[in-house]
Amino acid sequence: METVHTYKREKPATKRLSRLRPIYKDRHLYLMLLPGLLFFVVFKYIPLYGIVIAFQDYDIFRGIRESEWVGWATFKEVFAYSDFWVILGNTLQISVYKILFGFPAPIVVALLLNELGNRYFKKYVQTILYLPHFISWVVISGIVLTIMSPTNGVLSILYEWFGMEPKNLLADPTAFRIILVASDIWKDLGWGTIIYLAALTQVDPSLYEAATVDGAGKWKQTWHITLPGIRNVIVLLLILRIGLLMNAGFEQILVMQNSAVLEVSEILDTFVFKFGLQQGNYSFATAVGLFNSAIALVLILGAQWISKKFGEEGLM
Amino acid sequence: MSRTRRIRFSVLFLYLFFILTGVLMLYPFWYVLMFSLSDPLRASVNKLNLYPSHFSLSTYKYVLTQPFLYTGFKNTIIVTVFGTLISMLLTIGCAYPLSKESLRGRKFLFSLIFFTMLFNGGLIPTYIVIKQLHMIDSLWALMVPSAVSVYNMLIMIKFYKGIPSELIESAKMDGAGDWYVLLRIVVPLSGAVNATIGLIYAVSRWNEFLPGVLYINDQSKRVLQVVLNGMLREDSLANQPGLQDLASSPESIKMAAVVISIVPILAVYPYLQKYFVKGMLLGSVKG
């Protein structure tokens, strides 16, 4: 009888111990993880809790715990606010333009770079093309501002040549949108080619040899061998890019916009910053921000789902 | 005959295209440099700025003695050096344990971290947390809240996974602990990836602008990009107290400030290019 008892008492103890043993063995690894995890909890997860202020009439002096709950009232207010729809429209419009023109550009440049026979020339070109990626938007906007200046910028020379009235393009709504898209392409054109160039090296060279024997020219080779060869990468990057549709370029727009073009350049991010943080409408801006990140999340998960459907590896 | 001529023509076109693109990429920098080397009062005579008009270094003399720019530089250097250090410590600290398949709860911890890439509290809830931590108007706010980039961590994890496990196992046989393995084997073996990630962090700290606008009101804590932005724009955002007189200064002086702010980036550019491309490729191939 007694032996059975001891046997029964011992079994759960060893079981618990054997489950804890690998954790104890790796205790130093968990210790290494601790500061990083603390970082994510404090700066990423506690702000998640802060989202509740979108459902409150938040008062900085009373804090989250004491502020009054208002349910969905703030969201109703947001959707009833006519400027909100203009700002949402701007966000989508700028972003779509950036994808429309900015997405194909590095593919074309990568294809052309791939045709360059001279390795040294190619290296120099790449070195120059990658450079703007490392320059801050503040600096780029400063350069754009100077070059576009109607009085002494480079463009003013063209006005003189054609005998036109100097115009401040940065204050012109249509021109400003073009400048936003163009400067974005200028900054990351070269950078965007890197992945495509890597993908191009994976295309089987024997295909080109066979095509040459069959008498296919450069265009035909590009169309029938090169492009299909990097199709997967193009599709994957396009899907990922669409997943980031809600990012119209916060920093770029914040430093480049001016009051004359506010109407076409105010996006959700800049609005949350100005109306929320600078003017203290915390609850309203948090509701707008939550709307923004909820759509972004749906887009990213959707993009992920589609890329899995296409048989690509996806992000996760 | 006509065929070879056509090919030659297309090659010519190709080279021409890239020379033009290269000029398009470099000209703005050249323009700024030449402009900054011009006499501040007579600079706008020569609009294309292919060469300096009335060469003068007075702009640099002026800019380098401005206290605002000096403060900006000092703060940015502090943030870049210590911020990069903090980022590296936290990123390595997470990446090494998470690279071990045998770690219990690895999947859970990993998805906990990965989720922050997809969804976050947003600008205002983050601001409130930083405010409650009394980090407003402190340089800590520019170094800590954005210390870890999950993307960089993923690159690192992937690299660590590639380290031959025999090396680690044999060290453990000899009685080495996890800390010893990390500091004496893993980190020294991953010099390239450490350099890559370290440079990525350093450049993003140097160029950092938004946190400096969001969390800093104190003039003496302004970082370089914020000071520069104040100088370059004469708009609402720039009209922060103390920067008005610089915002109205001659264009060539602003350009000198721009040049000075890019010099450190240019100085490390050869390394940047080499390592960033590696990092990009490492990150783009799923392991």
From TrEMBL, chain A:
GO cellular component annotations of the record: plasma membrane
Cellular compartment(s): Cell membrane; Membrane
Topology within the bilayer: Multi-pass membrane protein
InterPro entries reported in the protein's UniProt record: MetI-like, MetI-like_sf
Keyword Transmembrane helix: yes
Keyword Transport attributed: yes
Protein name as it appears in the record: ABC transporter permease subunit
Organism of origin: Cohnella ginsengisoli
TrEMBL record, chain B:
PROSITE patterns recorded: ABC_TM1
TM ranges: 12-33, 77-96, 108-128, 140-160, 181-203, 253-272
Membrane topology label: Multi-pass membrane protein
One GO cellular component term noted in the UniProt record for this chain: plasma membrane
Pfam families per record: BPD_transp_1
Family statement: Belongs to the binding-protein-dependent transport system permease family.
Protein name as catalogued: Carbohydrate ABC transporter permease
Organism: Cohnella ginsengisoli
